[in-house]
Structure formats: C-alpha cells, structure tokens
Amino acid sequence: PPQPRERKTLTMSNYFGIGVDAAVALDFHQMRERRPDWFWSRLVNKLWYFRSGAMTWMGKTCANIGSKIDVICDGEAVDIPPSLEGVIILNIPSFGGGTDLWGRAEDEENEQYDSDSDSTAPSVSSVASCGRPCCGRRQSMQDGQLEVVGVHGALQLGASQVGLYKAQRLAQGSSVKVTNKVTLPMEVDGEPSWFAKDGVIEITHRGQAFMLVNSKETSHAVATDVVDWALQQKIIDVNQRHRMLKEIAQRAGARKLNSWTRLSPPD
After folding, report:
1. Rounded to two decimals, what is the model's pTM?
2. 173, 202 in Cβ contact below 8 A?
3. Is 186 exposed, middle or buried (0-12, 13-18, 19+ CB in 10 A)?
C-alpha cells in the first residue's frame, strides 16, 4: 500500500518560489555545501551565483513551468503561459534583495493617469494583462493578500535586480494551492529544497505583526492604499474610488508645485 505523505508546516514571511528562481538558489546552495572553501567573499559569492544562473538559463530545466504545475488561487485555476519558467508567490513588495516584481511604480503611474481622466471611465489598473480583474490591485502588506507572478527565465531575474524587468502578473488572492506533476526545485524565503512529484503546497494567511520600517512611500501612495482597501472592504464603490483618486492626485500635484515655488530663489 502507498505510504502516507508527510505533512509539514512552514512559515513564509516574504515569498515562495518554484521553478527557475529556486533552481538557481538550489544549485548555489548545493555547491556551497560541497565546497565551502570556494565561498570566501561577497564578490566571489555573487560570481558563483551568476554561474548558477547561467547554468540554469542554458539548461532550461524549468521551461514551460505551466505544464509541470497547477496553481489554484481562491478556488480558481490560474492560467500560466508556456513562456514562463517560474512562479513566485509574494507576501511583501520585495523579492531577492528588494526587487519589485509586482510593479508598484507602474500602478502609481496608471492611477495618476486614471485620476486625470474622466472619473466615470474604467480604471487603467482595474484589469491587468493576465485578464483577471484582481491582478490590477496595488500590492499591500496590510491586506492579507498574496500576489502570484511568473518569470520568464534566469536572465530576466537578473535584469529585475537593476529595474529592467517586471514579472508577469498572474493572480492575487488570500489563498494559493500549488500541485506539481514532476519533481521541481522550490524555495521559501530564500531557503531552497526539492518539491516531490505529486506534492501539494497550500499557502494561506496566518497572521500579522507590527514592524518598524524605513518607508519610502509618499503620503500620496499611502492614501491610495487606503482607498483601495476601502474598495476591497466594500466601504466605497468604484465611482467613489475614482473620484477620491482624482482628488488625491490633484492635491498631491498642487503640493509638489507649492514646494517647488517655496524652494525657488527670489527674482
């Protein structure tokens, strides 16, 4: 008779990855375990990590990740394009040392554009390229939501470190279930391991804790977060959201203009 599968509970604080990103991390980890004397400085470590990324890119072991895994977000199947080599589930707007894979800055630009247009027009950020309406929402650490993105390869992950690449948005929800059809590398908060064939991973919101951070967000971004939260909680409707975003954008623009005027030298 088949042996019962082991059930293991892990705490994910930042992100979960399966596919190309985990393959690079796992190769680097295994090499460091075999030859720790080769890793003696930060620069050398980065060179070895680059080597792992190049090997993964040439091997294409995680090509067409959508044919190897099934992803369910809030009970709905997530469509994974065949061009993707990895899927990453984000809990915070930071991956791999600060990379913004979800694309927060693009959201702010879209909302600025939307606020300057007719308030009755549909929001630019309401529907993302994946076709799922939820993919257009801003990422927030306070909403208990997870963001699912896809990456196209190790080369693109490297480009994301310098802001030259944004991952493809796939889904956004409070629970994500991943089932794999073959053995694949995975990582949780940078700790890589193997994900056995026919394994199942379920990710749900466990809790929150107050943290002190050096926030780079402007008051404009914080206000927009609150408006989106109010829409999700059904405190306001879509038209009220558009009107509030338009007013926030106008006041933020006026404040920037006043600040520039105060700082300008007298004639």
Report:
1. 0.69
2. no
3. buried
